Amino acid sequence: MLVTLKDFWQKHPSSIDIDYLANDQAECTIWFWSNQAKAMNLEHYTDQTHVESAYEGFDELRATATGIANTNEGTITLFSEAPTDKMLNFYLQIHQQKPLLHCDPLYYVETKACGFLIYLENHI
Questions:
Q1: pLDDT band at 8 (very low <50, low <70, confident <90, very high)
Q2: By the 8 A CB rule, do 19 and 26 touch?
Q3: Taking the CB of residue 87, how many other CB atoms lie within 10 A of it?
Q4: Is the distance from CB of 90 to CB of 75 less than 8 angstroms?
Q5: Cα torsion 84, 90, 92, 95: sign
Q6: CA 31 – CA 14 distance, rounded (Å)
Q7: 3-state DSSP helix/strand/coil percent for the chain, to nearest 5?
Q8: Which residues form the PcRGLX/YetA-like central beta-sandwich domain (predicted)?
Q9: What residues form DSSP beta bridges with 108?
Q10: Alpha-carbon dihedral sign for residues 21, 22, 26, 29
C-alpha cells in the first residue's frame, strides 16, 4: 500500500502516523492537519477593509474569515506485491504532479471549445 499526500512537506502541519508495523495488521492515520498542531487560526485580524473600493455605495467586507480554506489531496494505491523503487518513484511523481490532458490546438479551434476564434492560416 502506498499512501501519498500532495505537497506533504509544504503543507505543514500535515502528518502520517503508522502504528503496529511489527504485527499482522498495521494502522495508518493520515492527518491533513495534525492532531498535535495548534488549531488553524480563523480569527478576524482587523475590523476594517483593506481594499478602498465600493460597490453601489456599500463598503466591501474583506476582513472576515469567510472563505478561508486549506485544500488537501491524498491518494492510496494498493499493490498485490511489493513495488519496485522505479514503480514507487513513478506513482509518487504522478501523485505530486498529475498530468494534464490536452488536445492539438487545431481541435480547440475546430470545435470552438474556447469560443469563436478567427483562424488565419497565413498568420499562424
A1: confident
A2: yes
A3: 13
A4: no
A5: negative
A6: 5
A7: 20, 20, 65
A8: 3-89
A9: none
A10: negative
